[in-house]
């Protein structure tokens, strides 16, 4: 992340993708359909199970400092579930590789 933000020339030198030809690998071989669907289904289940827990903490225990911290940790976990349970499977179903979406892929992974 430091290279990406503060030493962008060095980042471009190390992670240069101009020599790679993406179309040398067919799109059918790049799609991870089964793994993406499993990941998407699990992401939906985890997300739906997480929401009532956070709602319960917010509705009943938000005045207690410990539960307030727990609520914020739960919100951060929800963001992680959205990234790993929804965005990753969608990109895997499309057959996207990090060369296509270099900057957004780098930011989502770090």
What does this structure look like?
Pfam families: 7TM_GPCR_Srt (PF10321). Keywords: Membrane, Transmembrane, Transmembrane helix. InterPro entries: 7TM_GPCR_serpentine_rcpt_Srt (IPR019425). The protein has about 110 residues and is an all-alpha fold. The mean pLDDT is about 80. Helix 4 (about 35-60) packs antiparallel against helix 5 (about 65-95). The chain has one domain (about 1-110). About 0% of the residues are buried. The radius of gyration is 19 Å and the shape is flat. It contains 6 helices and no strands.
- What shape does the CA trace take? flat
Helical segment count: 6
Strand content: under 5%
Stretches where pLDDT is under 50 for at least 5 consecutive residues are: none
Helix content: over 70%
Oligomeric state of this protein: single chain
Element pattern in H and E: HHHHHH
Report the major sheet. Answer: none
**Given the helix and strand composition, which structural class is it?**
mainly alpha
What's the total number of strands?
A: 0
Q: What would the average pLDDT be, to the nearest integer? A: 81
Number of domain modules: 1
User: How far is it from the N-terminal to the C-terminal residue, by CA?
Assistant: 7 Å
Alpha-carbon Rg, integer: 19 Å
Please describe the topology of this protein.
Elements: H1 2-6, H2 8-14, H3 27-30, H4 33-61, H5 65-94, H6 102-109
Helix pairs in contact: 4-5
């Amino acid at each position: 992340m430091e290279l990406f933000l503060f030493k962008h020339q060095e980042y471009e030198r190390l992670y240069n993708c101009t020599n790679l030809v993406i179309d040398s690998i067919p799109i059918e071989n790049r799609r991870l359909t089964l793994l993406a669907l499993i990941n998407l289904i699990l992401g939906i289940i985890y997300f739906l199970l997480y929401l009532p827990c956070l709602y319960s903490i917010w509705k009943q225990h938000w005045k207690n400092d410990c539960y307030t911290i727990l609520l914020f940790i739960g919100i951060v976990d929800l963001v992680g579930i959205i990234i790993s349970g929804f965005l990753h499977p969608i990109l895997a179903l499309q057959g996207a590789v990090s060369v296509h979406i270099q900057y957004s892929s780098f930011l989502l992974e770090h």
